[in-house]
Q: What sequence folds into this?
């Protein structure tokens, strides 16, 4: 961030008066450019115990499998965002959305809100950001080909909870990677 | 948003190729300036069934009562953000944080994540953004002097659930105001 969005002046990076951390501040018009974490909304969608996954047609993680998810838009509820992403990425229609996980991922300043839902029908297909869409049975999940660690964590929790027959909402943190080779290593998602 | 943060050029407002809604796009360097909802994190903090509220020393809603809450910062977990806000606004230390409500507020592009917690001790006092801090018994809540509708909704739900002896996480929407006089009418919070 170099220039002020309001007046076009070059920005300083400094601690504003009364604040406790550096921000991008305009020395000309005084505007402070706050930057805050972004929310991704998505869904684990089931049809007869099989889970809908999408194979990504875009970077990062081109060719890897993910649940339908993407950035929440301004003026959108979290539920509307999750439904929109399911339509955009998988042309899928979701039933009732049940809150399942909130992942807080501080090292990339993101949150992932994951719902559970049933597919309303079996009419789904690849949207523009997907190469293909498919339902996976519990023993078919492509664990080594998942797009992101948060997808891996969501599906692991979901399958464990489904086997136990007990779902509950929880907040979990995805810490920075330690450098070892974990499945679905790319942290960032594109829009 | 007038100027590109990357190169300082005047921005266009147009639908980027492959997108479905207008964004601020730089015709010189091509940068797309996405804007997304912001997350506020806060806490309903109790001490022996009394609830900690802060009277705001800043606009909007100067002089009105709120729970400790504020914008989540980059590189911060949601729990760390809620603890930081309790320290900053009420010099208060929280025990275990239990997820309680996520309010989605599309007309101001905000979300509020509210935790429940016990105060670790009775050492609390007004921080820089508060005129005073106080514990309120159930029949003392200043309903007509609350800062925001989301605070009103959080406390109403909390007191009802506490009386019923059953808390559970839920996602709720705060719709736009209909113009009638509801307590705590200002929607926006300042930083």
A:
């Amino acid at each position: 961030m170099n220039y002020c969005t309001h007046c076009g002046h070059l920005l300083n990076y400094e601690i504003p008066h009364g604040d406790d951390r550096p921000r991008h501040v305009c020395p000309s018009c005084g505007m402070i450019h706050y930057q805050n974490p972004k929310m991704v909304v998505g869904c684990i969608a089931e049809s007869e115990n099989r889970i809908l996954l999408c194979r990504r047609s875009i970077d990062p993680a081109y060719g890897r499998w993910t649940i339908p998810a993407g950035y929440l838009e301004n003026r959108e509820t979290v539920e509307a965002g999750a439904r929109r992403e399911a339509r955009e990425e998988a042309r899928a229609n979701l039933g009732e959305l049940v809150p399942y996980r909130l992942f807080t991922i501080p090292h990339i300043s993101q949150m992932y809100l994951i719902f559970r839902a049933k597919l309303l029908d079996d009419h789904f297909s690849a949207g523009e950001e997907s190469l293909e869409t498919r339902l996976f049975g519990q023993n078919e999940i492509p664990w080594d080909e998942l797009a992101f660690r948060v997808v891996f964590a969501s599906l692991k929790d979901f399958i464990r909870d489904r086997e136990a027959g007990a779902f509950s909402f929880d907040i979990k943190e995805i810490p920075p990677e330690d450098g070892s080779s974990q499945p679905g290593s790319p942290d960032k998602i594109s829009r």
